[in-house]
Every structure is written in C-alpha cells, then in structure tokens.
C-alpha cells in the first residue's frame, strides 16, 4: 500500500504564498491566450492555438513533475511549461510570431506554430546534457495523438534504467528509473488508434506513465457524443483498471476546476507511477475552452447558450478565485491587483517579443533600401527601381520574404548593368544566411553524423568459404553489439523467444534477458514510439518491424515525429533510433511490396539503408551505433539462408553510409540497383557478357544519403549509358535515383542514350513464383532491357530480339 506524501511543516502562510504564485501563473497564461488571439486577428501572427481553460490542472501536473521527468504532450500545455519555468511571456509570443532565432524562441526557432513545446537535451556540440538535472519536454507535434507512441518509450526508458545494469553514463539520464513520462491529450483525440495502441502497450509493459486527458467535451466543433462511446473515455477504459493480481492502469478522475483535488490527485498519481512503475490515467473532466479551438473561428457557432453559461461559471480560473476567497487565501481586491498586474506583464512581454522579432528585419530592410537607392542613381531603370524602393519602405512590419522579393525583382532590371554584381552578391549572401534559419539540422550537423564513421572491412580467415547462412552473420554480429554496447536493446514481433522469424537473433534473449531482447505485441506504431522515446533518453534502441509492408502502420510516426525531430528542435534534441525490417522479393501481394518511393519521400531526416546481404547489413548496424542519427535498415528477406563468408571481426567491421560499391567493372553500360535485385542483375550481366555486352554494376547500398562521392556519374562518364533496376512501382524509387544522378550529379552531360528504368509492374505481385516472375524484374527482363539499349547503339551487332 502506497502512502500519500504529506508536508506537515507547511504553514498557512507558506501555503498562501504557493497558491498565490500558482494563481499568478494561471492568470499570466490566460492573458497570453487572450492577447495572443488578438495578435492573430490583427495580422501580426498567422495562427493561434492556446491553452486557455486548462490552466489549473496543468498547475497541478507541474507540481508533481520532477527533474528528470519527461513530458510528451498536447499543444495546449502552455501553463504547464510556464509553471516548470521553461516558457516565459516573451518566449510565448516569439513562438506566436514565428521568430526564427533559437535564443528568442527556444521551442523550435519558429519552425513550428506556437503551442508546440520542447526543452533542450543537447549541448552545442550535440552531446547530451545531464537530463536528470532539468525538467524535460519532448518536442511536440501537431498530428492528434501523435505524441502517444513516443510517450510509451519515454516511460519504458525508466524501466530499463532501473532494471538493466552496466549502462554507461546512466546517471546522466536516470536516477535509478524514478522518472515519470507525463502525457497529455485532448479528449477528442482519444478516439485515435494511436491512443488506444499506446494505452494497451503501457498496460502490458507496466511503465511509469501518467496520462492526462483534458476533457472539455468537444473536438473542435464535434461533441463527445460523436467521439466516444458513452461520452466518457475513463468509463470505457474501466477494463484497463489494475487489480491486485493483474497488470493494467490505475484510473483516476478529477474535475478540472477543483484546484485542491487536482493537487491531491496528481500527487497520488506521481507516487504510484514513480515508485511502482504502474501507469496511471487521469481523466480531467468539466474543463472549458473559452476561446474555442483556435483563432480560426468562434465556439459560439457550435455551443448552445446553456453550455456557454456553464463554461463561464465553471471556468477553472474563476473557480480558483472563488476557492481562494472562501478559505481566505486572498481578498477580491488582492486578486484584482494580481489580474491587473498580469495584464501589464503580458503586454510588456508581447511588446518585447514583437520588437525582438521586427527590429532585425527592419535593419535588413534599411540595408537593402540603401543599396537599391545607390543602384537606382546610375540605372537606366531608375524610376522602376525607385517604385520598388517606395513599396518596400512603406511596409511597417516587413518580412524577410518581402525584402528578398524586392531585391530579386530589381536584379532583373539591371542584368546588363555594372551594379548587377553587387546586388547579386547581396542576394546570394542574404539567402544563404537566411535559408539556414529555415533549413538546418534535417540531419546531424555534429561530429557524430554518419559521415564521421570510417569504413572497416570484414576480416576473413585465409581459408574462409561462402558456407555460412546470412542470418548467422547477423546473429553473431548482434551478439557482439549487445556485449559492446550495454545501452543497446532490440524489440519487435517474434524478436525475443524464437530469435526473430528468420533466426537473426537466435539465442540472444536467453543470453541478454527479456528487457534487452524483447517480444512485443502486434502494434507497429508503438514499437516505433518505444524506440523514439528510449532514444530521447540516451539508450540505443533497435526497433524491429517484422516486414517492410508493415512499416506502413508506423510511417506516420516515422514521418511526423522521428524524421523531423532534429529539424524542429534546431538540433536541440535527437533520437538515434535504428529501425530494422526486412523486405523485397517475397511472393504474394503481402510482404512482397517494395514501397521505397513512398518511404524515402515520407521520412527525409532518417537514413534509408538497403544492404544486398547480411554482412553489409551487419556493417550498417555497427556504423550506426557510432553516430547519432536515426536510420532504417532493410534486410533482404530472401537472403537469410544464402551463403556468405564468416567474418572474424564481428561488431567492428563497418559499412560506410552514403557510399556506393562497384560490384563489377564494365565499359558498355552502367547498371544501378540495390538489395535483392542485385543478384538478378549480376546473373544477367554474366549472360550479357557472353554476347559481348560488358556491364558495370553499382550497388547503391543507401538511398538516403545517396552516393556522396558521386561514383555513379563517374561510371556513366565511362560507359555513357544508364539503366536503373528497381522492384518498386514505376516512378517510385527509380525516379528518385534518376533525379539524383541526372540532376544532382549532372549525369546528363555524359549520356549518349536516354537513361532508362526497369521496375516492377504498377500492381502488387500475384501469389506464387509465376506471380513474382510476371510482376517484378527478372533476369530475362534485365538482359533484354540492356540488349535493347545496345540495339539502339549498334543495330547490326545487336539485332532486334522481337
């Protein structure tokens, strides 16, 4: 039985000071919401979504929140962030204005709309801060319930740190696993599958997660009766209630306007989760949303007069005022004085934020106006330039876009004049400087990026033969990894007891335990979430998605959360998660898909690696564990039983990332492919050589990043012809590969023939060997495609086949 913590030394005067301070934070937050909406309506800000109506429960959550804890939340948590000291009034408005200075707007430097919060986990060099010495918030995302999967991993990390010994630098990330992961969500978003998937997984795993549901009965304009069975999320989750002999949740309910009960409820929840690692769900109901969903519209359109009257009466701040007066915390006059001062403080903070945002741009406006005036004096298009100057100068609150648009339009007017050089240089310099503020940190810009890892070749015995199953190379390399890196762990469907469906983890759970090599349920999105959350807390997780086509269940989390994490925090957070899956060339509609075009275009910010065999795959895992970036590794599904040489230096050899490998030198045509298809390409090349066609074969090895040394174009410069072979649909990954070669590498300069692709059919493969043969590129398809391209070059030597 857990006893609630009490503070018997707290005097009434101390209590009064604490309550008054809470009230000040609540009213400051409310005034920020009210003034923030006005800033949107007057055009200074683009859009606003605010936390009004949720202030008091967030104060209670903040009181129970300790150093080392993590929040994974909802875009209405501004009061909480203010209460833990991580959001000032000025920073709130800097976010509203989209200020792209990380010092002014530390949440995302204007890359996300206001209401999306984060703390900084990294030092300037990309190394970890001591996360146990600060209160932490993982970076918010907008997709509803998208914060849930990562919440699971943030909580699971505490379990790992408590129960797994030998993790290096563990004290920087955890105090013996005592940290709680705090989740917040709006009641309407509990209708999302990600919510239910996460709730179920947390109940199974028994991790220290406290989940707050802010329930104001609406999802934008849609009432709870259209959202939730019985209009009550905690009612329908009763089956998750933890009993004495079961796993599950502790479920608590509390009214969102009852300050005293909220404090007690959150203290109780924290004790349960922190000490027992039992997840807790807090249903905070009877909340309001005074300004409606966002600045896009008014809630008067969809709430009736009775509801609006109730919301006015049961506004949480109004109820807190009444309670304070009733127990003599403060008089109405004292409260009025606090309210008045809050209005002044918020107005001053708003002005400071606006000035900090605008003044640098005005200086840039003055700079370009001065340059354009100088140019105009000697230009034959003086009058037109002066008009541009007048138009730009008349803008009282200019944007960087307006400055650059003016400069670029003037440049067109002076193309044949001497002043063109000076203006062109200014535009290039200004664009480069400014673009970085909007485009940096998609990938790591630290010394721990993937390009810092040097190639290490596998070492073989002198008499080594290709007699080892590929899956055994993976297995023995994972064994070396788990020994070398105690912070690594792997989890996925069938990854534990049976050692994964292809035996690449055979015996690993028995050797390293169920926490480090774990089976999980069929829930791909939260498998990814486990990985993201644990990686955010310093662990090195490997999340296994059983098959490539199952990745689609998790693609939203990969795309919106993991891929954008470093970008949307401007390099202040990282989650170096490795995602392991397998795919390509299996037979049938399911498991045979290779949706690489979809994947690489959805997850920019995650490296995509496509090894042709298990030695290459093992080398990628070794490389990734030496850097700080997330990656997807797609193993060849039909390669686990193929024979390879057994390396001697498991855990040490490294496949370079972004570097292609030339598998065969040739003179007539360059064949580019990756993964399982390469084996078909190699066989076709042998048969083509028999009739005098000498192909050069290049294994791309990774799609993101792509051929950083530009070796493909060097090959084309020699052969003057290009064929890309891919088992994705037409225009899928092959289109990306061509764009990289032809446009980025300027491969068109060296082509004597039209570059071509050979892909799978647009439909999915029918079941069986014939289905594969008639749906995806075959050896004969490759042979005849190359032959046809050579027929164009020399019809007499290579007459038409058909």
From TrEMBL:
SMART domains: Transket_pyr
GO MF, one example: branched-chain 2-oxo acid dehydrogenase activity
Keywords for the protein's UniProt record, in alphabetical order: Oxidoreductase, Thiamine pyrophosphate
EC number of the protein: 1.2.4.4
InterPro entries in alphabetical order: DH_E1, THDP-binding, Transketo_C/PFOR_II, Transketolase-like_Pyr-bd, Transketolase_C
Reported function: E1 component of the 2-oxoglutarate dehydrogenase (OGDH) complex which catalyzes the decarboxylation of 2-oxoglutarate, the first step in the conversion of 2-oxoglutarate to succinyl-CoA and CO(2).
Protein name, entry field: 3-methyl-2-oxobutanoate dehydrogenase (2-methylpropanoyl-transferring)
């Amino acid at each position: 039985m857990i006893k609630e913590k009490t503070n018997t030394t707290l005097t009434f005067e101390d209590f009064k000071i604490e309550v008054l301070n809470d009230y000040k934070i609540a009213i400051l937050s409310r005034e920020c919401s009210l003034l923030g909406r006005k800033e949107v309506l007057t055009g200074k800000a683009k859009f606003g979504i605010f936390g009004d109506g949720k202030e008091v429960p967030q104060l209670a959550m903040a009181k129970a929140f300790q150093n080392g804890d993590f929040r994974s939340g909802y875009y209405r948590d501004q009061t909480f962030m203010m209460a833990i000291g991580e959001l000032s009034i000025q920073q709130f408005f800097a976010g509203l204005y989209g200020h792209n200075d990380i010092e002014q707007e530390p949440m995302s430097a204007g890359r996300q709309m206001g209401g999306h919060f984060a703390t900084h986990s990294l030092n300037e060099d990309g190394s970890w801060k001591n996360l146990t010495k600060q209160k932490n918030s993982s970076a918010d995302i907008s997709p509803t319930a998208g914060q849930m999967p990562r919440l699971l991993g943030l909580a699971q990390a505490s379990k790992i740190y408590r129960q797994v010994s030998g993790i290096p630098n563990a004290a920087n990330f955890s105090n013996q696993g005592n940290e709680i992961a705090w989740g917040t969500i709006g009641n309407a978003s509990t209708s999302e599958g990600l919510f239910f998937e996460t709730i179920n997984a947390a109940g199974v795993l028994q991790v220290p997660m406290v989940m707050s549901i802010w329930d104001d009965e609406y999802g934008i304009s849609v009432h709870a009766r259209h959202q939730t069975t019985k209009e009550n999320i905690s009612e329908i989750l009763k089956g998750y209630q933890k009993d004495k002999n079961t796993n599950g949740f502790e479920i608590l309910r509390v009214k969102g306007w009852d300050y005293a009960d909220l404090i007690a409820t959150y203290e109780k929840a924290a004790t349960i989760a922190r000490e027992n690692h039992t997840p807790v769900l807090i249903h905070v109901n009877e909340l309001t949303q005074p300004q409606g969903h966002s600045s896009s519209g008014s809630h008067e359109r969809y709430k009736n007069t009775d509801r609006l009257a109730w919301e006015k009466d049961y506004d949480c701040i109004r109820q807190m005022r009444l309670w304070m007066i009733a127990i003599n915390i403060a008089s109405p006059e004292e409260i009025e004085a606090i309210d008045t001062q809050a209005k002044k403080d918020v107005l001053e903070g708003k002005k400071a934020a606006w000035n900090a945002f605008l003044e640098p741009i005005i200086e840039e406006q003055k700079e370009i106006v001065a340059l354009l005036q100088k140019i105009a004096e000697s230009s034959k298009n003086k009058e037109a330039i002066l008009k541009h100057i007048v138009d730009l100068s008349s803008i009282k609150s200019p944007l960087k876009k307006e400055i650059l648009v003016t400069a670029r339009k003037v440049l067109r007017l002076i193309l044949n004049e001497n002043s063109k050089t000076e203006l062109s240089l200014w535009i290039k310099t200004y664009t480069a400087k400014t673009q970085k503020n909007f485009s940096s940190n998609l990938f790591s810009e630290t010394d721990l990026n993937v390009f810092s890892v040097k190639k290490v070749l596998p070492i073989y015995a002198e008499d080594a033969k290709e007699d080892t199953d590929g899956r055994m190379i993976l297995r023995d390399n994972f064994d070396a990894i788990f020994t070398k890196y105690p912070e690594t762990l792997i989890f996925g469907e069938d990854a534990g007891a049976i050692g994964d469906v292809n035996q690449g983890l055979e015996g690993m759970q028995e050797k390293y335990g169920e926490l480090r090599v774990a089976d999980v349920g069929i829930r791909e999105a939260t498998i990814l979430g486990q990985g993201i959350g644990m990686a955010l807390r310093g662990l090195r997780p490997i999340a296994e998605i059983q098959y490539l086509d199952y990745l689609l269940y998790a693609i939203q989390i990969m795309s919106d959360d993991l891929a954008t994490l470093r970008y949307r925090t401007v390099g202040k957070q990282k989650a170096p998660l490795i995602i392991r899956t397998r795919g390509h060339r299996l037979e049938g509609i399911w498991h045979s898909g290779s949706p690489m075009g979809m994947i690489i275009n959805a997850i920019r910010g995650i490296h995509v690696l496509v090894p042709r065999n298990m030695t290459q795959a093992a080398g990628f895992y070794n490389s990734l564990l030496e850097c700080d970036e997330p990656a997807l590794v797609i193993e060849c599904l039909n390669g686990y039983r193929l024979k390879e040489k057994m390396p001697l230096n498991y855990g040490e050899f490294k496949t370079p990332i972004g570097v292609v490998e030339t598998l065969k030198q040739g003179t007539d045509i360059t064949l580019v492919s990756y993964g399982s298809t390469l084996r078909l390409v190699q066989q076709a090349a042998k048969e083509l050589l028999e009739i005098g066609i000498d192909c050069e074969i290049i294994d791309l090895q990774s799609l993101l990043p792509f051929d950083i040394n530009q070796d493909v174009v060097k090959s084309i410069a020699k052969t003057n012809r290009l064929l890309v072979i891919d088992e994705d649909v037409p225009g899928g990954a092959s289109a990306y590969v061509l764009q990289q070669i032809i446009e980025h590498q300027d491969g068109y300069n060296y082509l004597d023939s039209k570059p071509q692709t050979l892909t799978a059919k647009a439909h999915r493969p029918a079941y069986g060997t014939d289905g594969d043969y008639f749906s995806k590129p075959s050896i004969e398809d490759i042979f005849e495609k190359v032959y046809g391209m050579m027929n164009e070059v020399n019809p007499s030597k290579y007459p038409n086949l058909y």
